[in-house]
């Protein structure tokens, strides 16, 4: 399970996809609105981190100074464009749940 303490220690950690391919550096951790559990990471992608995309922490694991997520890099980079503000709205979370094919509800970190 990925804990908040682990994520706090990984400032600027690299996010890797399911095959170990670098997606980009961790920008920010977002908590689930209902549970307060770390549920999403915002990842900087592209040249000089020009685009930031959300990726769920569902079944993610911390490996050293990296976070490995069970999604392919192309899928992560093509995630819906959602503004990186203080928190995700319920509608934004729902859009991301649909995109990543996660059952409705909080994305568990495991």
What does this molecule look like?
With about 110 residues, this protein is an alpha+beta fold. About 20% of the residues lie in helices and about 30% in strands. It has a single domain, classed as SH3 type barrels (Roll), CATH 2.30.30. The chain has a six-stranded mixed β-sheet. A hairpin with a 5-residue loop joins strand 1 (about 15) and strand 2. It starts with a helix and ends in an 11-residue tail after the last helix. Mean pLDDT is about 85; it is low at about 105-110.
Write the layout of secondary structure elements.
Blueprint: H1 4-8, E1 14-16, E2 22-31, E3 38-45, E4 51-56, E5 61-63, E6 66-68, H2 73-77, H3 90-99
Parallel strand pairs: 1-6
Antiparallel strand pairs: 1-2, 2-3, 3-4, 5-6
In short:
This protein is of the alpha+beta class. It is 18% helix and 30% strand.
Enumerate the spans where pLDDT stays under 50 for 5 or more consecutive residues. Answer: 106-110
| Biggest sheet descriptor | 6 strands, mixed
Provide a count of the helices.
Answer: 3
State the helicity in percent bands: 10-25%
Domain PRC-barrel: 9-72
Protein name: PRC-barrel domain containing protein
Organism: Ornithinimicrobium pratense
InterPro entries: Bac_photo_RC_H_C (IPR014747), PRC-brl_dom (IPR027275), PRC_barrel-like_sf (IPR011033)
């Amino acid at each position: 399970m990925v804990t908040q303490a682990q994520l706090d220690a990984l400032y600027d950690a690299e996010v890797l996809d399911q095959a170990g391919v670098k997606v980009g550096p961790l920008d920010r951790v977002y908590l689930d609105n209902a549970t307060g559990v770390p549920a999403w990471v915002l990842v900087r992608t592209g040249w000089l981190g020009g685009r930031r995309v959300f990726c769920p922490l569902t079944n993610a694991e911390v490996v050293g100074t990296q976070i490995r997520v069970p999604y392919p890099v192309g899928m992560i980079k093509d995630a819906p464009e959602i503004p990186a503000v203080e928190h995700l709205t319920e509608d934004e979370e729902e859009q991301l749940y649909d995109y990543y094919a996660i059952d409705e509800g909080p994305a568990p970190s495991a």
